[in-house]
Amino acid sequence: MSSNIRQNKGNNIYADLSDYTVIDVETTGFIPDYCDIIEYGALRVREGQVVAEFQQLCNPGYEIDSFITAKTGITSEMLKGMPSPETVIDQFLTFLGNDVLVGHNTNFDINFLYDVSDGRLPNDFIDTMRYARHYLRNLERHRLIDLVNHFGFDSSNMHRSIPDCYLTKQVYESLLPFLREFGPYKKTYRSEKTDFSLLEAEGETDPGHPLFGKVCVFTGTLEKMIRREAAQLVVNCGGTCENSVTKRTNFLILGNNDYCKSIKDGKSNKHKKAESLSLAGQDIEIIPESVFYDLVEDN
DNA sequence: TCTCCTCGAGATCT
DNA sequence: CTCGAGGAGA
Fold it and tell me: In CATH, which superfamily holds the domain spanning A190-297?
């Protein structure tokens, strides 16, 4: 089974559910083409309560690597006499039924299950990692362990399928309030991402602040935050943000543009335009990101 | 101005 | 894989 064509896979969805099934599989490695499931795990949830569990160790037919044993605690010895992954998949699919499947980095589990079931896995699924990356942007990392710690759950018993399913359920429930408040993530184009005109100041603005009444424009990738967050800081100081350098522009904030292949001399088109406007006498300053943060914090 | 495209960076699962 | 960024083209 080719791993990059999984036509009948379900969709990765945003949904506020109380009936679903949590899944987690342990495997011999990352790549479905070369690795196998060694443990199935699932929890059927109805009205928010676990009403059934499915747990089964499987023997892939070869010794498993020591680093898998170190990670999961599953040894080759434990798998002796266990059924093969292929002989368990039908029971597992029956357990899943038509439920939406909840997991952490669910694509990983789905791809293994899809392949071993020969494509009989059309269930839509929910990925708590994706939710967390969207709603908990301030977290440095979004591994299951990071979310478990963030929400204050007990992480002492991780890396087997059933305990991880329970933790994933708790994490999903903890992320639902964010979904309710902010709505599902929508793929947005720049027009929405960078429409800063609707931003309102959080708190009082200081007319004496250097950014008060000033028009700011960003170029390049900011190191410390996305543009919308930086734009909010500007608005909090009484300034506004726009998307292109014009005769109104007072500050151009330079992010990192190293990656951009089309920029050959280290300066973006916005940068060049700002320089020419500056030479023409316009009140425009070109400042690096670090200076920008000093400015907005100066209040 | 708005939409579509491409590119590079970074992250998660065992 | 997803996401944010600039740029082309309408």
Answer: BRCT domain (3.40.50.10190)
